[in-house]
């Protein structure tokens, strides 16, 4: 009998590793293949960067509360975030679209309004794509091409012991925004006359519906003369993405719970929904902030940037990633949270 292995037994990352094992690049200009936020292609003067992401209705977004215009914006921002994570500059995007007959021409217009806005904000050109039909709602994939000077590229696998760990912005907001939107959806389904209770929650809702790629920080690091020693964007959550940096760099890390940047609205929403705010910050995805390391000598150049928080440091203890809690205990971080 043929063997059948469930994908769930490997998980997403295990599956990608398995695919990666069977693939070898052969062209001299394919500098980096599977394994980072974007592939790296030698263009001579510079490196080209190529990344792609896919978003499915019912898996990645729920159109009962996700306005199409925002969705268009978010998808472009998410793609660009992977270019930012290489310390690169995005240039061109392509969009693949699969639509069921539930969608009208006007709906597609709305989606593209959001995409055009994102293209303008991030200064990229939408240069192509593909359109087809779908039996299961809306499917969108985005590919982004970018570039970076060869000596400025930031990989995931080059963090060094004693480097400082930095994150941009604040964490856990997109996750809490999603929890609130889902709660309101349930309330609305139970009683369509109920008005949504989202007052004072605009920031976390916006974090979910309209995230930004942190190109601003990429430019500010450049102006400060700082090249991250490693970088990844926070799409899956701080814990999971920090584990990627550590595993791929062959290092460990210590982060401090009290240093995690968490917005007031994230705290409020977390306590309202009985979720630990630190849990949201560590495991909530879709913040699209940057997690990066710098050598200690870069501290002076960026310490006054209000967009950057120092949350810990890299150690030489391979694979050991620890959280120092506010209660002064040390717990190992896992992708799902931590084993307290
Ligand atoms: P990100 O969250 O930054 O978009 P992913 O975790 O999706 O990164 O992907 C990690 C790496 O695996 C990337 O280099 C990506 O190009 C690669 N990858 C993901 N899925 C596939 C696939 N089906 N085939 C080949 N490479 C893949
Ligand atoms: Mg990424």
What is the element layout, followed by pairings?
Elements: H1 11-21, E1 30-32, E2 39-42, E3 46-56, H2 68-84, E4 89-99, H3 105-121, E5 125-133, E6 139-149, E7 164-168, H4 173-190, H5 202-209, H6 215-223, E8 230-233, H7 238-249, E9 252-256, H8 264-272, H9 277-283, E10 290-294, H10 299-302, E11 308-315, E12 321-324, E13 330-334, E14 337-338
Parallel strand pairs: 4-5, 9-12
Antiparallel strand pairs: 1-2, 2-3, 3-6, 4-6, 7-10, 7-11, 8-10, 9-11, 12-13, 13-14
Bound molecules: adenosine-5'-diphosphate and magnesium ion.
Report what the structure shows.
A hairpin with a 6-residue loop joins strand 1 and strand 2. The relative contact order is 0.15. The protein has ten helices and 14 strands. An eight-stranded mixed beta sheet has the order 8-10-7-11-9-12-13-14, with helices on both faces. Helix content is 33%, strand content 26%. Residues 37, 82, 85, 232-233, 235 line the site of magnesium ion.
